[in-house]
Amino acid sequence: MVNERDDASETPDIDPGLHWRIKDSFVKYVLRGAGGAYSVTDGADDDGAGTFFFPFASASRGDGGWVLSFGGDVRFSGHHGALFVPFTEPVIRLGETGGTLAIRRTVPEGSPADTERIVIAELTGEVPQRLGDALAWPAVTAQLTPAGVSLLGDAYPVGTLMDPLRMLIPAQ
Ligand code: HEM
After folding, report:
1. CA of 157 to the centre of ligand 1 (A)
2. Contact 99, 61 (CB under 8 A)
3. Parallel, antiparallel, or unpaired: how do β-strands 37-41 and 73-78 relate?
4. pTM for this structure?
5. Which pLDDT tens digit goes with each residue over 56-100?
6. Which residues form ligand 1's pocket by a CB distance below 6 Å?
7. Are 166 and 23 in contact (CB under 8 A)?
8. N or C: which end of the chain has fewer CB within 10 A?
9. Which DSSP symbol is given to 81?
10. Which run of H or of E encompasses 53?
């Protein structure tokens, strides 16, 4: 099994983690159409230009490919509380033939915590590139599962493209 491609020797000058616009049209809709807002907590961040950041937590590699875990919490709210869409602690399972993106199911503040994970997107298979001291997946295609459609208020059909996932982790 090919586990990585040796493409360059320079380590990119970006933090190890998941860099993801989530879905640009959704974010714009929340901020304009739904009169809403978002928060970034627990190590998550945004670059002010639409890309969200979930910090690298851990990685392991098995027969099925990589399991990449990230921290951080990005949550959208709007419509006076009717819209609440959290993206918390993403976990990516990814091999050469495909993968999944799961998030921790999260409930609004004040409700009992729910630690179940839900798979919100199917990923197209990718092998990482070796960039100096890092492994990088520059643009992984993600398509909504039924659970992802439900998370986003049934506004999109199953299979709708999310924005591509970009991951960088320390070389393992
Ligand atoms: C009071 C309740 C709501 C109203 C009145 C409402 C209204 C609308 C309207 C008018 C649009 C189309 C406008 C546009 O494209 O800019 C839209 C799109 C959308 N809504 Fe809502 N909505 C509500 C609740 C929700 C909730 C609870 C969610 C998610 C859990 C949600 C997710 C979406 C999404 C994902 C889109 C598509 C955005 C895009 O990619 O263009 N909405 N909504």
Report:
1. 14
2. no
3. antiparallel
4. 0.90
5. 999 999 888 999 999 999 999 999 989 999 999 999 999 999 999
6. 25-26, 29, 33, 79, 82-83, 85, 152-153, 155
7. no
8. N
9. G
10. strand 52-62
